[in-house]
TrEMBL record:
Pfam families: ABC_tran. It comes from the Bacteria. It comes from Allohahella marinimesophila. The keyword ATP-binding applies. Keywords: ATP-binding, Nucleotide-binding, Transport. Gene3D superfamilies: P-loop containing nucleotide triphosphate hydrolases. Residues 7-242 form the ABC transporter domain. This is ABC transporter ATP-binding protein.
Length: 260
């Protein structure tokens, strides 16, 4: 993993009336990593994501974006094509076909010809494992897994450097979820992506993440999966110390013994 930050969140504060969601929160996202964000309900995962995406103005603090050479980017250079977002529900436009959904960001943000736009969209469809016949379907005609893949193809069509995934495996059966994990790993490797994902799916987090960032006490504690299961914070202990968490930490110990 590359240790240069691509996004740096410093002293982030988010308040709604009397409620403080984030208090002097610091968080760095490094180029080329997959980082998972976890936290209890209402701890501010979505607010953090929206703050990074510029969808929500923080009460105070800064969020800096860097290019691959760690140069701070000005506002003009932070164009929406630098990142892609996969929202939890997929957020596909229900009145557009899969192909029309996928080409939308290219039509909105570039001046490419209709032919190039279509070719790029079909390329991304293939890359995420959607059959080309799906291009003519409407979202209501797709399975849950296909909706996620179509939304992922749309998030990737502008060739972003960072993608944000909000609960990418929620609603998928375990096999489809595992296939989706494999897809994320494949895309990270082949597109040189940085991936930030909010997830409650421990299997998915341990299968894919280089680091796991936990939102507790209005701040972030981030570490490798092996380290985070040993963190002494009571909520983190409880979260990862449950039956499934224990299975994962035993799995990683078994893996390292095997690998030694
Ligand atoms: N626009 C807003 N106005 C007032 N309060 C808000 C607003 N947006 C978020 N909040 C509050 O901020 C807190 C964090 O919300 P957020 O949606 O980020 O939680 P979350 O960690 O994503 O939760 P979940 O896992 O349940 O989706 C919640 O208490 C929520 O009610």
């Amino acid at each position: 993993m590359n240790q240069r930050p691509i996004i740096k969140v410093s002293n982030l504060v988010n308040r709604f009336g009397n409620q403080t969601v984030h208090e002097q929160l610091d968080f760095e996202i490094f180029a080329g990593e997959i980082v998972g964000i976890v936290g209890g309900s209402g701890t501010g995962k979505t607010v953090l994501l929206n703050s990074i995406l510029g969808l929500q103005k923080p009460s105070s603090g800064s969020i800096e974006f860097y290019d691959i050479k760690s140069r701070s980017l000005g506002d003009a250079e932070r164009c929406p094509t630098s990142w892609g977002v996969l929202f939890q529900s997929g957020a596909l436009f229900s009145n557009l076909t899969v192909l029309e959904n996928i080409v939308t960001p290219l039509i909105e943000h570039t001046k490419m010809s209709a032919r190039t736009v279509k070719e790029l969209a079909l390329l991304r469809m293939r890359m995420v494992g959607l059959p080309l016949s799906a291009q003519f379907k409407y979202p209501s005609q797709l399975s849950g897994g296909m909706v996620k893949r179509a939304a992922l193809a749309r998030a990737l069509v502008t060739d972003p450097r960072v993608i944000f995934l909000d609960e990418p495996t929620s609603g998928l059966d375990p096999i489809a979820a595992e296939e989706f994990d494999e897809l994320i790993l494949y895309l990270k490797q082949h597109l040189d992506l940085t991936v930030v994902m909010i997830s409650h799916d421990l299997d998915s987090l341990f299968n894919t993440c280089d680091r796991i960032a936990v939102l507790v006490d209005k701040k972030i504690r981030a570490a490798t999966p092996d380290e985070i299961v040993n963190n002494d914070h009571p909520w983190i202990q409880r979260y990862f110390g449950g039956r499934r968490g224990r299975l994962h930490s035993q799995g990683s110990e078994a893996h390292s013994v095997h690998g030694a």
